[in-house]
Amino acid sequence: MISDESDRFNPRDPRPADAGKPSKNEKRRAARQLATQALYQRHLAGASLNEIEAQFRVDNDFTFADLPYFHDILHGVHAHLTEIDAALAPCLDLTIEELDPVELCVMRLSAWELLYRVDVPYRVVINEGIELAKVYGSTDGHKFVNGVLDKLAPRLREAEVKEHKR
Fold first, then answer.
1. Cβ–Cβ contacts within 10 Å for residue 18, how many?
2. I need a surface site. Which of 20, 48, 77, 85 has the fewest CB within 10 A?
3. Is residue 77 within 8 Å of residue 108, measured between CB atoms?
4. Locate the NusB/RsmB/TIM44 domain: which residues (predicted)?
């Protein structure tokens, strides 16, 4: 059998040894994408959270996703849904029930991060929410999500937003 030289360690290779492995940010982005899909499934089907999580673990490759973060999002949004929807409501022109389900799931995920994951900068939360809406939402859904999150961030992270605007 002929060996593939490209798989061997080469000390003169300038690439780091972990080249090709996803970064923490890439793994978190993948976790958010999977969590958006899982939240959407929960919203539409109403299946149990544990069933959905188990199904996602079987059906998806978590090699490139942050599994603990996926779990935290899924269970965090569910556990704090009342607080999340209450935080979103003043930033909306529609009721929660009138919102597109995909965009609602994206905004709930983002609101959870703003409320409960202060280790994630608010600008990252907004950007990730916009990107999720571009991928999964309606044609201009990302614009709506952007507008809502731009209103929500100063309400939930006032000091951080003020500090950034200096």
1. 8
2. 20
3. yes
4. 30-153
